[in-house]
Amino acid sequence: MGMKINRWLPLPAELKERLPMSAAAAAIKAERDEKIKSVFTGKSSGFIVIVGPCSADNEDAVCEYVARLARVNERVKDKLCLIPRIYTNKPRTTGEGYKGMLHQPRPDAAPNLFDGILAIRRMHLRAIAESGLTAADEMLYPENRSYLDDLLSYEAIGARSVENQQHRLTASGMEIPVGMKNPTSGDFSVMLNSVKAAQRSHNFIYRQADVTTDGNPLAHVILRGGVDKYGTNIPNYHYEDLVRLNGLYESAKLENPAAIIDANHSNSGKLFREQVRIVSEVLHSRKCDPALKTLVKGVMIESYLKEGSQPIGAHGVFGMSITDPCLGWEDTERLIYKIAEEC
């Protein structure tokens, strides 16, 4: 056979028993979930800011970042809802390169999925305990989300996964907001079809069980830009794009119309400093059009302790991305306060 079993991994219930969520953390998550949900249902006028490193590669650096974010959150929480990005799976276009802490808890060492599963749960638990903030992660592998499903307050489905049936059906069983990114082609119809699927009830196989889901009314879109057939980046955060999206949402008659704007990736052409300008333009569009103020619920920003990116190495810069380049902390802090002023 072309596949061999390296070792059997623990069941999610076994991992949760080994690394349990405390009563205090459960109470924090319950409160946070309600606050975040209220933004997506329109009960709150708060604005979501999902912010953090491209990929969570180091527990100490991530937890320091989230602790700083918590201090900022105390100053802006009346207007903004800050959700740290703690992304533990990294999709790779060609399959090469660092695939995230789940695969490599030590980026400079060989893959170790057993240690990776322990590492990502331990990191999320520590981040909640030290900051009082529950996080967002990406659902790269639908069946693996069961290792973290009691800890997360937001999940995203990436551009390469959004057309996948198992991702859509699994999203329909979540009880938290799930953002469906537009595919790399930029196609809005594919993205909205994913939202429609996620908002419906389904019956399917999940982790060797026959399951039925309720449907997730909090499924929504994330605009991250696209790439044309020549490999040119095509942004989709401009006013005209948002107006078009609003019209498509109205035609689709989906529950809780909502959009998060990813300020990096193909929207910025991975020119990470452009995120500041892009966020400013999105906020201006919301000011100009009441319908867009209702539709656009937040932004997604890639940032870390140190600006830029670096190659993987044993003596790298603490808190600098080893995948896509990110804004540094000082620029991020200024940007969050600016968002709060303009919302």
List its salient traits.
16% strand, 38% helix, globular, alpha/beta, 343 residues
Tell me what you see in this structure.
The chain is an alpha/beta fold and 343 residues long. It is 38% helix and 16% strand. It contains ten helices and 14 strands. The strands form four sheets. It has an eight-stranded parallel β-sheet, sandwiched between helices. The protein has a two-stranded antiparallel ribbon with strand order 6-7. A hairpin with a 2-residue loop joins strand 6 and strand 7. Helix 3 runs parallel beside helix 10. The radius of gyration is 19 Å and the shape is globular. The N and C termini lie far apart (57 Å). The mean pLDDT is 96.
Q: What secondary-structure arrangement, pairings included, does this model have?
A:
Blueprint: H1 12-18, H2 23-40, E1 47-52, H3 59-76, E2 80-84, H4 113-131, E3 136-138, E4 154-157, H5 165-171, E5 178-181, H6 188-198, E6 203-206, E7 209-212, E8 219-223, E9 226-227, E10 233-234, H7 239-252, E11 259-262, H8 274-288, H9 290-295, E12 296-302, E13 306-309, E14 320-321, H10 329-342
Parallel strand pairs: 1-2, 1-12, 3-4, 4-5, 5-8, 8-11, 11-12, 13-14
Antiparallel strand pairs: 6-7, 9-10
Helix pairs in contact: 3-4, 3-10, 5-6, 6-7, 8-10
**SS strand fraction:** 15-25%
- Rg on CA atoms, Å: 19 Å
Q: What structural class results from the helix and strand content?
A: alpha/beta
Query: Strands across the major sheet, in which order?
Result: 2-1-12-11-8-5-4-3
Number of strands: 14
| Low-pLDDT runs | none
Helix-strand sequence = HHEHEHEEHEHEEEEEHEHHEEEH
Instruction: Provide the residue-averaged pLDDT.
Output: 96
- The separation of the N and C termini measures 57 Å
Q: If helices are DSSP runs of H or I spanning 4 or more residues, what is the number of helices?
A: 10
Query: Biggest β-sheet: count, sense, barrel?
Result: 8 strands, parallel
Query: What helical percentage do the residues reach?
Result: 25-40%
Overall geometry: globular
